[in-house]
Amino acid sequence: NPKYGQAYYYRGKCKSQIKDNMSALDDFNKALTIYPKSTEIYVTRGLHKLGMNLKDLGCLDLSKAGELGDQSVYILINKYCK
Length: 82
Hints:
Layout: H1 5-17, H2 21-34, H3 39-51, H4 55-67, H5 73-80
Helix pairs in contact: 1-2, 2-3, 3-4, 4-5
């Protein structure tokens, strides 16, 4: 159901675990269309992209989470994006 952003988010996390990478990204993207200010989804999608060797895109997502108020994400940015 397109109204259930959490379902897309958790399904994306499951797909990420089994390395269904593109499908996981699709689910994270759908979740963000429903919850565009969710720092948790941005962080998770960013880490997923980093795991796919998409450093620039992953770091953009982490940065967006920081802009939205998740101060703890700067630890990840310093670790993976410098």
